[in-house]
Amino acid sequence: MTVYIDPPAWPGHGRLWSHLISDASYAELHAFAASLGVPPRAFERDHYDIPSHRYADAVAAGAVEVRSREVVRLLHAAGLRRRKGA
Q1: DSSP state of 4
Q2: How many Å apart are CA 61 and CA 72, to the nearest integer?
Q3: Labelling 65: which of 8, 16, 54, 86 has CA 20 to 30 A away?
Q4: Alpha-carbon span 35 to 38, nearest angstrom
């Protein structure tokens, strides 16, 4: 069971964002996010949006750095991918 994060490359609200995911379960993901103090409202379908200034905190807490394409592949492989509108 691992939590992953991609580089902060996604623009929104005047900043860049990363995606934080789990390859095991949403429970693991929610617990990891809570341990970082990430608010529940940052969860979107199958990932947490993490602002660039919190990226290093997530990595220091144990999130594994991966490319954005790997995030999607890992979610699909784990059966945890939720598309918009689905």
Answers
A1: E
A2: 22
A3: 86
A4: 8
Query: For the segment 10-58, what is each residue's pLDDT rounded down to a tens digit?
Result: 999 999 999 999 999 999 999 999 999 999 999 999 999 999 999 999 9
What are the φ/ψ torsions at residue 30 (nearest 5 degrees)?
-60, -40
3-state secondary structure of 65: strand
C-alpha distances in Å from residue 78, one per residue of 37, 71, 75, 82: 25, 11, 5, 11
* CB distance 9 to 70 below 8 Å: no
> What tokens does 25 get?
């379960």
CA neighbor of 22 nearest in space, from 8, 7, 37, 43? 43
Token pair 């490359």 in the structure block, residue: 9
Q: Which residues contact 19 (CB under 8 A, 6 or more apart)?
A: 5, 6, 10, 47, 48, 49, 50, 68, 71
